[in-house]
């Protein structure tokens, strides 16, 4: 038995080695081919004519011609493209078509490329896009992979401030060759925001607090959060002025902060505030006493982020608070 | 005789000091927070109610929070003591043996699958999950012949499996992500509703555990001896197992898996009052409450003025203690 | 319970035949895996593309994503399985695994720190820090265990305790920085998404270490006899454990650096292997490696093909598949005891 085992093991070793060698060879040859196919892909597109260089969060990217097929990996990029009159060909939509329909205001024909966290590279590459717009936080690890598929620009969306978001809009406009439109649109946006601000005429002494409410937690959005900052632009002073964008709170802290206006962004289902509403402390909140508590859409207020969405938030405010003359 | 009376004195002294510390802790817990409330106001509020903001905060927010802290701490510590007794394993505890992880998995899954579920039904989900974790380990442990180390490894592996399943649920749903904070074990923002939810279970469990403590003490001496003394060994084991599920399950349902309380408290208690479970169980309840109440006070300073879950603090205290136990070789010899 | 000597005697299946069968299965699964995903590629196209004669549009997907992922799954799956088998040997316990002794948690904590505290750091920091975290965890493990003579039981317990400490740290950072929770969770779950040739090259250096372990497999058998007997046979058990542990940790570190902390492969693959071929490490290690490769490759293909375009991280698939098997296993162990 021992003897048999010995020969067996020798053969086994040989076999394993053979497999290892085979695998290694296959690996080498296929990288070679990958490089080849990349070359041919690149060569097909040079006829476009003018080339421009876009500077973004992870360097510079050259874009030839005007991109037609565009893949957007964050919601604010979809908003930007939509504002510029472009339908994205591929969207990382977390498989929520209805959310995208809400964002662009109509049913559009696009291919889902999976989740925003892990967009499906295979699907993106099979779309053969001319441009990919990726998020600086979520997608920095796959930047090089995306760059191999198509020219990719990386912009701040998920962790962006209001201003960075507008800058990203300009960069996208530059990439798709619609700089003029974007300038006009941004000027218009500024005007809309100013007008909304004038109409809302917020009391400079009043404070506002937007928060995401879930069934087990209450997360305040401070002056550094996207919606907090936008509200500041609309003339509303955030009740929590700090560098950290979010703060986990309980009812007691809410009582301490006691904002004049309370905006609750939530999904359907049970909420922690349902229970708070039975507490006398809740009833004594300034916002509650003055009827200044509003439920807002969590998608629009905290997820979409873009030129049009910002205006929609402004319109929301007008609708809820009314014109202040 | 002399030794026994000395032991008695130590026990009474420990009980006295523990109770005083717990009372101080509760007063501190009630006075420390976002709204600054003086200790006098706290004490005053026990004597005379009024409708000032401070008193309403104390009555509707801080007091239930402190009570939850006491109940969760006592329940988890006693659950740990029971587990250490029936598995004869110094490392047994709801955390290490996957009971907490099982309850978490079931609670998080129910939150995701049935978003409208009432808090009361969550308790039952937690019981089921705790039972799953507990039964796996118990069926493994009851065969005998397993060394504590093997049991600990098995428990830890069960824990890993259950918690990675929970992780999967969390990763693939928005509600799951919302549950993340809860998953570390938090008692802030709890109200009287939660107290009502946990009180019958944990109080009932604690009383039963105390009633069972004599039998458990005998059981620990050895099964054959216990049998000889007329103890129904199997029944005691099963009853203890059920108590663990009730105590740990209801705690997790309300506060999330607050870790390591069940591991470290019984050890400290054994050091203080000796190896008799008639003393270990009530003292575990006392010191478990003490630990969670003080840990909860500490947790308010991690991200002051905002809240952090108490489970972070118990884990940061408990994990190094676990290492200390392991280094002592506590799990190796019985 | 020594790792089932009985099974060693009972299993007379020929290791060579077994290796052949497993290799065949692996090749078959590889072929399937290359075809499965958001974009289906037919076997003919795959062959044509691999031979270089195909002009299909799928060549890019095949070469850029599926092939590297295939290799990563094979190498990492095999590596984790071998490391797991060796750990189970060192600790003389069938329930030991890279997850349980705290090494992957150490890597996880280091990775979480990089993700939340240094979000601007260059991409390659993440794998480097994960590797360092795993090494630091192993160093701590050996340091603490050293005084107690590196007994298997102490090693196991201290590993669990260290793992708990790292876990506490991970939770602390996740609560402190809720914004980064998603990327953190994804990394912790372990996934082959977005991994490419770079990770293949990152994993290749683990192969010589795996071979070194295989060459030492006879010593593992002696360790399994117990310390007294092993010492009697002239083995320096303490040093031997250090060497074996270090080699395994290097492999684990590389795997975790490349694909995140994928669990359960190192636990389950050696078990299946032991059932198939017995506990002699000379055969156990290669069989474990093949099963580990099969397991991870299968998990990744499933995660990719189940709900396209959404990808389920391989780590979650391994947990879902692994859990029932593990429960079954525990029951059996319980009965035997």
Provide structural commentary:
The complex is a heterotrimer of chains A (325), B (334) and C (337). Chain A folds into 2 domains: 47-177, Rossmann fold, CATH 3.40.50.1980; 192-321, Nitrogenase molybdenum iron protein domain (Rossmann fold), CATH 3.40.50.1980. Helices cover 49% and strands 17% of the residues of chain A. Chain A is built from 14 helices and 13 strands. In chain A, the strands form 3 sheets. In chain A, strands 8, 9, 10, 11, 12 and 13 form a 6-stranded mixed β-sheet that branches. The mean pLDDT of chain B is 82. Chain B has a single domain (2-328), classed as ABC transporter involved in vitamin B12 uptake, BtuC (Orthogonal Bundle), CATH 1.10.3470. Chain C has a single domain (72-336), classed as ABC transporter involved in vitamin B12 uptake, BtuC, CATH 1.10.3470.10. Chain C is mainly alpha-helical and 337 residues long. Helix content of chain C is 75%, strand content 0%. The chains are: A alpha/beta (325), B mainly alpha (334), C mainly alpha (337). At the B-C interface, helix 5, helix 6 and helix 14 of B face helix 7, helix 8 and helix 16 of C.
Q: How are the SSEs placed, and which strands pair?
A:
The complex is a heterotrimer of chains A (325), B (334) and C (337).
Chain A (H helix, E strand, L loop, with lengths): L1 H42 L7 E6 L2 E6 L5 E3 L2 H9 L6 E2 L5 H8 L6 E2 L8 H7 L3 E5 L7 H7 L2 E4 L6 H14 L3 H22 L6 E7 L4 E4 L4 H8 L3 E2 L7 E4 L1 H7 L3 E6 L5 H5 L3 H4 L2 H4 L3 E5 H7 L2 H15 L4
Parallel strand pairs in A: 3-4, 3-6, 4-5, 6-7, 8-10, 8-12, 12-13
Antiparallel strand pairs in A: 1-2, 8-9, 9-11
Helix pairs in contact in A: 2-6, 6-7, 7-14
Chain B lengths: L1 H30 L7 H9 L5 H35 L11 H15 L5 H23 L6 H24 L2 H5 L1 H4 L8 H30 L1 H6 L4 H23 L5 H13 L3 H26 L7 H19 L6
Helix pairs in contact in B: 1-2, 1-3, 1-13, 3-9, 3-11, 3-12, 3-13, 4-5, 4-6, 4-11, 5-6, 5-11, 9-11, 9-13, 12-13, 13-14
Chain C lengths: L4 H6 L4 H21 L7 H9 L7 H32 L12 H15 L7 H22 L5 H25 L4 H9 L7 H7 L2 H10 L1 H8 L2 H6 L4 H23 L5 H13 L3 H25 L8 H23 L1
């Amino acid at each position: 038995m021992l003897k048999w085992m010995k020969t067996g093991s020798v053969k086994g070793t040989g076999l394993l080695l053979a497999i290892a060698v085979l695998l290694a060879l296959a690996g080498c040859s296929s990288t070679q081919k990958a490089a080849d196919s990349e070359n041919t892909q690149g060569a097909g597109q040079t006829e476009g004519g003018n080339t421009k260089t876009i500077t973004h969060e992870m360097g510079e990217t050259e874009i030839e011609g005007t991109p037609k097929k565009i893949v957007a990996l964050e919601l604010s990029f979809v908003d930007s493209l939509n504002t510029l009159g472009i339908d994205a060909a591929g969207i990382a939509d977390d498989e929520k078509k209805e959310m995208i329909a809400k964002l662009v205001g109509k049913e559009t024909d696009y291919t889902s490329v999976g989740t925003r966290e892990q967009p499906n590279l295979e699907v993106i590459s099979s779309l053969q896009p001319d441009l990919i717009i990726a998020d600086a936080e979520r997608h920095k690890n796959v930047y090089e992979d995306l760059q191999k598929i198509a020219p990719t620009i990386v912009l701040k969306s998920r962790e962006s401030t209001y201003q960075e978001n507008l800058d990203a809009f300009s960069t996208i406009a530059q990439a798709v060759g619609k700089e003029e439109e974007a300038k006009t649109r941004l000027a218009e946006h500024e005007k809309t925001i100013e007008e909304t601000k004038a109409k809302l005429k917020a009391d400079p002494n009043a404070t506002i607090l937007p928060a995401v409410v879930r069934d087990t937690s209450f997360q305040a959005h401070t002056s550094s959060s996207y919606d907090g900052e936008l509200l500041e632009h609309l003339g509303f002073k955030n009740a929590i002025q700090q560098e950290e964008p979010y703060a986990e709170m309980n009812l007691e802290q809410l009582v301490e902060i006691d904002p004049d206006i309370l905006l609750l962004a939530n999904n359907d289902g049970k909420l922690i505030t349902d229970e708070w509403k039975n507490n006398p402390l809740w009833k004594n909140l300034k916002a509650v006493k003055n009827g200044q508590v509003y439920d807002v859409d969590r998608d629009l207020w905290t997820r979409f982020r873009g030129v049009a969405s910002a205006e929609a938030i402004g319109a929301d405010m007008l609708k809820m608070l009314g014109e202040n003359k | 005789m002399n030794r026994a009376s000395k032991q008695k004195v130590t026990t009474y002294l420990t009980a006295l000091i523990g109770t005083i510390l717990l009372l101080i802790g509760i007063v501190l817990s009630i006075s420390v927070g976002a709204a600054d409330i003086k200790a006098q106001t706290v004490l005053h509020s026990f004597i005379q109610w009024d409708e000032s903001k401070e008193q309403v905060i104390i009555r509707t927010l801080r007091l239930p929070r402190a009570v939850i802290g006491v109940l969760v701490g006592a329940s988890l510590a006693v659950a740990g003591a029971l587990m250490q007794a029936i598995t004869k394993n110094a490392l047994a505890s709801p955390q290490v043996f996957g009971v907490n992880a099982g309850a978490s998995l079931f609670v998080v899954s129910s939150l995701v699958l049935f978003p409208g579920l009432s808090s009361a039904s969550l308790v039952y989900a937690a019981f089921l999950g705790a039972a799953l974790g507990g039964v796996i380990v118990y069926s493994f442990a009851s065969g005998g012949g397993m060394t504590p180390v093997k049991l600990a490894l098995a428990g830890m592996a069960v824990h890993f499996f259950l918690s990675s399943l929970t992780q999967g649920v969390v990763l693939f749903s928005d509600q799951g992500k919302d549950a993340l904070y809860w998953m570390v074990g938090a008692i802030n923002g709890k109200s009287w509703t939660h107290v009502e939810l946990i009180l019958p279970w944990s109080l009932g469990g604690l009383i039963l555990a105390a009633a069972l403590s004599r039998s458990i003490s005998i059981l620990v001496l050895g099964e054959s001896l216990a049998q000889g003394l007329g103890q129904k060994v199997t029944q005691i084991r099963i009853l203890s197992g059920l108590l663990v599920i009730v105590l740990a399950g209801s705690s997790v349902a309300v506060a999330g898996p607050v870790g390591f309380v069940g591991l470290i408290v019984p050890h400290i208690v054994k050091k203080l009052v000796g190896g008799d479970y008639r003393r270990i169980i009530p003292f575990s309840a006392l010191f478990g409450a003490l630990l969670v109440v003080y840990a909860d006070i500490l947790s308010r300073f991690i991200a002051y003025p905002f809240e952090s879950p108490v489970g972070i603090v118990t884990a940061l205290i408990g994990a190094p203690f676990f290492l200390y136990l392991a280094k002592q070789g506590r799990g190796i010899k019985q | 319970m020594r790792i089932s000597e009985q099974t060693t005697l009972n299993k007379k299946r020929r290791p060579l035949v077994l290796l052949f069968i497993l290799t065949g299965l692996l090749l078959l699964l590889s072929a399937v895996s290359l075809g499965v995903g958001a974009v289906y590629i037919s076997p003919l196209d795959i062959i044509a593309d691999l031979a270089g004669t195909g002009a299909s549009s799928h060549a890019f997907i095949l070469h850029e994503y599926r092939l590297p992922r295939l290799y990563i799954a094979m190498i990492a799956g095999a590596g984790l399985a071998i490391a797991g088998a060796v750990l189970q040997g060192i600790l003389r316990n069938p329930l030991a695994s890279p997850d349980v002794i705290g090494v992957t948690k150490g890597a996880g904590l280091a990775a979480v720190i990089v993700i939340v505290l240094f979000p601007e750091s260059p991409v390659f920091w993440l794998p480097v820090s994960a590797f360092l975290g795993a090494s630091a965890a192993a160093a701590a493990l050996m340091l603490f265990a050293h005084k107690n003579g590196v007994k298997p039981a102490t090693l196991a317990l201290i590993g669990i305790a260290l793992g708990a400490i790292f876990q506490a740290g991970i939770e602390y950072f996740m609560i402190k920085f809720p914004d980064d929770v998603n990327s953190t969770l994804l990394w912790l779950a372990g996934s082959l998404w977005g991994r490419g040739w770079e990770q293949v090259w990152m994993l290749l250096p683990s192969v010589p270490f795996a071979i070194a372990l295989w060459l030492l497999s006879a010593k593992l058998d002696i360790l399994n006899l117990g310390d007294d007997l092993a010492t009697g046979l002239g083995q320096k058990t303490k040093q031997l454990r250090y060497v074996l542990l270090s080699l395994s940790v290097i492999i684990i570190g590389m795997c975790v650096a490349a694909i995140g902390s994928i669990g359960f492969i190192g636990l389950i693959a050696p078990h299946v292997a032991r059932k198939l071929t017995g506990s002699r490490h000379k055969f156990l290690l290669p069989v474990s490696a093949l099963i580990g490769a099969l397991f991870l490759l299968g998990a990744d293909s499933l995660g990719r093909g189940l709900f396209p375009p959404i990808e389920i991280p391989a780590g979650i698939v391994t947990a879902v598949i692994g859990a029932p098997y593990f429960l079954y296993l525990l029951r059996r162990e319980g009965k035997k005891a």
